[in-house]
Amino acid sequence: MSTETILLGLTLLAGLYMTWSIGANDVANAIGTSVGSRALSLRTAVIMAAILEFSGAFFFGSHVTSTIEEGVVNGAYFVHEPLTLVYGMLAVLLGAGSWLLIATYYGLPVSTTHSIVGAMVGFGLTVGGLEAINWENIGFIAFSWILSPLCGGLFAYVLFYFVRKWIFYSTDPVKATLFVTPYIVFFFMFVFLMIFTCQEFEQFQFYPTLFESTSISITIALVAFLIAYFWLKQLHIPPSPLLHPVHPQSITREISRARKGLSRLQGEARGDAQNKVSNLLRQFEEVAGDLAETESELHQPDFHIIERIFGKLQVMSACMMAFSHGANDVANAIGPLAAALNVLLNGYFVPHQPVSIYLLALGGFGIVLGLATWGWRVVETIGRGITELTPTRGFAAEFGAAFTILIASRIGLPISSTHTLVGAVLGVGFARGLEAINRDTIRDIVVSWAVTIPIGGIAAVGFFYLIRSIFG
């Protein structure tokens, strides 16, 4: 058996191992909020995610895979030593996958994109120096890592803000929910389908125009609107008991005014008076935190009906999140795998090779396998560790994150779905107030993010020297 054949088999296994690691750690991004808000059971969420993750990887994953395959390490640099690139890509898959395995064991939702890019940069710098890295692309990718959680958090914040304003703060929340929900469904389906259909489906020889994509999206979104409308019509909703109306907006406004007044008084007071005002301000913050935890949306009977309806909407957002995650993060395994196979099958690196649908299918299968076997560990952290989630909050977080990831996938940008979703969950938390954020969990997550890139790089370099000593 030739060395190339052995390397081919090992690389395929390493690619499967990496996709398994992605499924075990990163798919929590797709279903964690749904499980945390109890909109879906863990079993149902896993089955749903398995179908959508595979579909996203198969139909939409080629865009980002091409970026990872050619945009990080300069394949042309290894034209005289093509097997060195193969050793490196095999080491990248093993190094990044091993770090993901460790992180998953401890329930840390680290970034698989950071892991794989860090591993590829570590290998490239060690073997080829600065010239082996496409620094322009690296800068673009790194900028996206900052921008994506901000965008995910902003979209989720805005969506949850308007849900609270239009529904929870209305005089008749249930009636407002019944009116708004079909329009949310229409908007949701239209956005998702427009992003999905505005591409070329080479494997099916289908190249839709903008008019065709828009027509398909509007038609299906209208059908979804009608389904939601008639479903809500047939719901048996008991009449609301006569309650004294609660106006959280006025409560929030008064809290803000009182906080500003006390802060101003603290700055102007001196000596013992200032200490007393400081103690009073601390006591006030505790009371404000209690009020945040006892918002009217958690206590009025009507809101149980609202959360029931949004539980159905969150199933849709979880589907969109799973699809977008598969579309973006499958590249973290298939990109290096495709680069290695490019050399092994051609004898040297050939740029701009189309990504094989069989590799995308392998990636989708590995992600599903990882989710089904070990994914529950990180689901707990995402779903319950950052902030308390209800279906309305989970829907806002998932939609904000999925929208950001799908846009990035469409333009071939390998963003961190972990960063994006955590940013979206934080956006929902900030919409409820700083008191709703679990700062200890956030600290642990941020630390794990910071160490992921160097650990991925160091692990890849170690595996590279080991592999080269065996085959070189």
Question: What labels describe this entry?
Answer:
472 residues, mainly alpha, single chain, 18 helices, 0% strand
What does this structure look like?
About 3% of the residues have low confidence. The chain has 472 residues and is an all-alpha fold. The chain has one domain. Helix 2 runs antiparallel to helix 16 and helix 13 packs across helix 14. It is built from 18 helices and no strands.
SSE order and pairing:
Elements: H1 3-25, H2 28-36, H3 42-60, H4 62-71, H5 82-105, H6 112-128, H7 135-168, H8 173-197, H9 210-233, H10 248-268, H11 272-293, H12 302-329, H13 331-346, H14 357-374, H15 376-385, H16 391-410, H17 417-432, H18 439-471
Helix pairs in contact: 1-5, 1-13, 1-14, 2-3, 2-12, 2-15, 2-16, 3-12, 3-14, 4-13, 5-6, 5-13, 5-18, 6-18, 7-16, 7-17, 8-9, 8-12, 8-16, 10-11, 12-16, 13-14, 16-17
> In DSSP terms, counting alpha (H) and pi (I) runs of 4 or more, how many helices?
18
Class by alpha and beta content: mainly alpha
Q: What is the makeup of the main sheet?
A: none
Number of extended strands: 0
Helix content: over 70%
Radius of gyration: 25 Å
The share of residues in extended strands comes to under 5%
**N-to-C series of helices and strands:** HHHHHHHHHHHHHHHHHH
Shape category: globular
Provide the domain count. Answer: 1
Rounded mean pLDDT is 79
Give start-end ranges of low-pLDDT stretches. 242-247, 293-299
First and last CA, distance = 16 Å
What's this entry about, in short?
The chain is mainly α and 472 residues long. Helices cover 78% and strands 0% of the residues. It has 18 helices and no strands.
